[in-house]
Design goal:
Chain lengths: ~350, ~350
């Protein structure tokens, strides 16, 4: 992987946003994780509350987060509208953006887009890895693009200000969502296929379409999305960032680490298998016995966020660009994306 | 029934609220009903969205109301916070307050109080006619008072600003709720037992406790709650209002008509029987063939609201008291009750 020199704007004296945002984490939450967010200087974090949960179970997940937000209100606060991002930063608390990695929270009911949005679900993937009622996930056998229901859901998500997240979706479904959505969509957590060629990562066509439409792409630090797994160097990583910036635009990229802490392999079993296949007991036990993949040495936890900023500066990105990639770009995107239009 | 002379304050020049509020209606909604609200000069209406619906079905009911509110946005708007009441009045639109006549919308999950409140459910009865997870309804065999879960739910409803409605609850459950709640509770739609002695109406003890605690009592115009059914005269009705004012306070009473339009007897079957008993087919057919009870001639529809105001003036209530009973009292109560405390 050749190291590309960053070609971002070299603005100095430019007003920095002061935002440090990670668009996706999913941990077995304790207060320690929120303290770690603070140690990383973070201003907002997107958290996953549902993978396969349908509407009813999503309500319980929302209730659990409401309580967690109250119990840790000195450290964290909810992000529901665009203005909440800067409010969180100014209060010195970390904003929490609740999201789902599937459209299962709305069941088959387009009216639930607004209901879930009102209840606090602000980001939703249109698919996880499999076929959903909306389109195809990246592990699916075929990809029919966006369904009739999906077009209605996209229109409602656009209206209420719920972020459309295509991280796990298949190619055609992803490109059609970008095309059909009247507002820019996001890929909260993935990497480019040119960096690591797996269906879960995104093609150059997707990167380009995202950038041209004003969307956002969040770089993942989850080892299976990286070129050399946990052995991937920070230098290789920032070279990939620089090349992506050339394709999607320096203003359209950010971090979506996919950092998962405090779980064992049973959670991967749940994420991968949900209830859609019958898992042989031997395989289930193998999942349970398998530890979570190791993180790269340079990104073990949220407190390591400043190391990414340092490495981006070393790569040649300007202070303004580093500020944008570390959080300013997500803040600018979300400030608009979370506002209802009708 | 002796006609009691109203003893309300005779203030003139007092600032009138301009509110005309009906705390409870349940119709087979069409735009015609909202036009009728306007014809009645109404500023806000409480509508029932659930009788036996558990959490999942409540979401669909919320979605249906969200869409109805959008389709008729020239006439109606949602009431979610205290300030929305005056905003609706000032915009010339009728505010809609969504409520449930049961605690079924939260299932067995205290976290769903906030989730449902955030999603737009702003009023909830702790019981319908039967035993709930919280307490006993007025038709139940015995009344254990408020349960352990109920105490948690009351505390959460107090916190988030969801109105506690005891209209259908049994005596002990109702009195305990008034006592346990840190904020005044409401009986949105009932009449005093001294007017018509049925378990569904409220004892003088309840009227007194409600008034002393700053709660609200909404008078029903549903024939089974009236002294002489549809034959009840407006004069008898306002005499009852005057006597209730002496017990509960002129500032603690309002209208909660329980007006139900566009239904046939199958809806009464659903309301009474839900899924808790097996209804013999012959009884089911009898329900289906029975028309909805006739309304009194002087309260056929929402457009008849001014007739109530006229009759209250004739009864001797001052302009300020009539304004309060017709809507000002509900407005003052709800302005506070709908605001979260934590």
């Amino acid at each position: 992987m050749a190291a590309t020199q960053a070609s971002g704007s070299q603005t100095t004296g430019h007003q920095l946003s002061g935002h440090v945002i990670d668009a996706l984490q999913y941990s077995n939450w304790t207060r320690r994780h929120f303290e770690d967010w603070r140690a990383g200087g973070m201003t907002a974090v997107g958290v996953t509350i549902a993978y396969h949960e349908r509407a009813r179970d999503t309500l319980t997940r929302l209730g659990e987060w409401n309580w967690r937000l109250r119990e840790n209100a000195d450290l964290i606060r909810p992000i529901r509208r665009g203005g909440d991002l800067d409010a969180a930063r100014d209060e010195g608390r970390i904003g929490v953006l609740l999201g789902a990695q599937n459209c299962s929270p709305i069941d088959d009911d387009v009216g639930l887009v607004q209901v879930m949005n009102d209840a606090g679900l602000k980001v939703m993937q249109l698919t996880y890895n499999n076929l959903s009622l909306i389109g195809a996930g990246c592990a699916e056998l075929d990809d029919p693009g966006i369904s009739r229901f999906g077009r209605e859901v996209i229109s409602e998500m656009n209206r209420v200000g719920m972020v459309i997240d295509m991280s796990h979706s298949a190619e055609r479904t992803t490109l059609e969502a970008i095309e059909l959505s009247s507002r820019p969509v996001a890929v909260t957590h993935a990497n480019p296929r040119f960096f690591h060629d797996t269906p879960r990562n995104k093609s150059t066509d997707v990167l380009r379409a995202l950038g041209e439409s004003g969307g956002m792409f969040g770089f993942s630090l989850y080892p299976p999305h990286l070129a050399d797994g946990a052995q991937t160097t920070l230098d290789t990583f920032t070279a990939m960032v620089a090349r992506t910036a050339e394709i999607a635009g320096t203003g359209n990229i950010g971090i979506g680490s996919d950092l998962c802490q405090g779980w064992d392999g049973r959670t991967i079993d749940y994420m991968r298998n949900g209830r859609w296949r019958l898992v042989p007991q031997a395989e289930r036990e193998r999942f349970a016995a398998t530890p979570w993949p190791d993180q790269p040495a340079w990104f073990q936890r949220s407190a390591d966020m400043p190391k990414l900023a340092d490495a981006l500066r070393e790569r040649g990105f300007s202070a303004a660009d580093v500020d944008g990639i570390m959080g300013g770009n997500w803040a600018r995107y979300l400030r608009d994306a979370l506002e209802p239009t009708g």
